[in-house]
Fold this protein.
Amino acid sequence: MQEFPKSLSSENTLQFSDLLKDYYLQQMRQDIYIHILRNNQNDFFDIELFDRKYVKDIKVTDKLIDIIITELEQLGWKTFLGYGGTGLFIYDKEKPSSAW
């Protein structure tokens, strides 16, 4: 970031929670993008790790995951929330054997 965005204006503080949610969603998309490109469908995206690193509120993270799942399924991916909802498996054909 070369300069602060205008949305960071002190007059815009009421919008900060929405801006923060958008930031978290952008970070999650980027992390999942890299996860998918690594092409190991037996591995999962660690939701708890993402939450600890960025959001620090699992309820907010769960809402972000719902958005992400919808977007991925629209792109033709299948998804499965494993390990008690803490791991997101993203695959194209059959659910990975490691998903439970």
